[in-house]
Amino acid sequence: MSPLSTIAAKQFRVSSSRTAMRAPSTQKMMGKLRCESILRPGSGTIRLTMEEAESLVNKLPRSLFEFAMPTAVPEKLDLAMSVAGNLIRIAATRGARHGNDVLNQETGESTSSTLLKYPLIHWLIHFADLTILSRIAFILSKHPDYRAVAEWWLHRLAESKEPFAVLYIVNKQFAAGPIKRTVLIDYLEYFAQRHLVDAMVLYGQILHERHNRTQEALVLFTAAMEISVPTGRKTNSLDEDPYSVLGIPQAWEMYASVKATTGDKQGIREAVEMGAFKLDHPTAFKFLANIVAEEGHLDKYEEYMTKAAMDCDAEACHELGSFYLELYYDGKGRDKLPGPSKGQGVCPKDLVARKYTNRELLQNAIDWLEIASTGGWGPSALIMATLLREAEKPHKGLRYLKIAEEDENSASRAKEVRLIYQDKTFKLNIEQEILSKQFTRFD
């Protein structure tokens, strides 16, 4: 059976892949409570005194900006923090205003005396790009102590028709459930009509998932795919796509997702191939790898999954490492390169395995599984732990076992393994009991 006939639509809705660190969640509830105590319902007004604002400014963590702007020079970080401080102070003095009143762009006249106290903000509003303010507010939103101010500013900027803020607010509302037709949806449609790719995708999502206007959505997704640029191409805004941080799916992902619901196998493949070959998107290569694997092209599977894994996608690293480990176990005890297969054609597994010695296959597997483990991928960590225990290095394996226990995908099995891990009589068949083989049909 072709993989295209069984692909679930939701598998194309890609969330951020796990890499070397997981997003912290321990402060989530406290941050929510702090935000709700300052921000009034609907984000229309904010309760913040100037004394509280100054306290927030004085405690502004530089690390927050260093993490968000890793390539920025110190002077640029200083400027970003200065803008952030001014945004906090302005929120305390203009907390009940509408976006256009806060930014005072409509008339082109001088701003009120409040804004004149902050010449940098005044200059950004009238002579530069409001997106800079939205980006700074977005960075602030990542810290629970500053989330209320950030949300208030993003609402005000969205009311002023700033694209980044409009996309942020509408995307957040869309993810929360039913979404009403508001002026922000009108703004989103406006940006979609003017070929802002992320606006086209988000508006298309809303048309498809909330209003059953699927054909209109497909037209938008197709147009967005055609004008999208490769993932690695630089832009003028902080050397990256300014909208990439919003988590809006790629156009090819949404097109493939819709086609999957209708069983259009050719449409799915075309979208995935466009995402891979035209846009150089690592996730597209991961999907394409699984498609070609079902067709028996394991050499192409290796090539495409490697492209995905090179982007530090923990799941792709796990899949690639498991693939090499499966090939290793198939030829365990073999010291030389496998010779050509007898009979007609070459076994799909041998087409890959014959490029390596068995020792090299094992090392390839360990390398990729270790990277996946660093990314918090429990199944990889469980394999690493058992390989190290088998090699009589349990002291090194315990670290991986802990990672496996913390991942719901492997926690139950990892806890079972821990019960016998330190036993002198430890015995476990990794090939049969731990490794999930994917390609036994090609044995």
TrEMBL record:
Domain of life, per lineage: Eukaryota
Listed Gene3D superfamilies: Tetratricopeptide repeat domain
SUPFAM superfamilies assigned to the protein according to its UniProt record, in alphabetical order: HCP-like
InterPro entries, alphabetized: TPR-like_helical_dom_sf (IPR011990)
Protein name: Uncharacterized protein
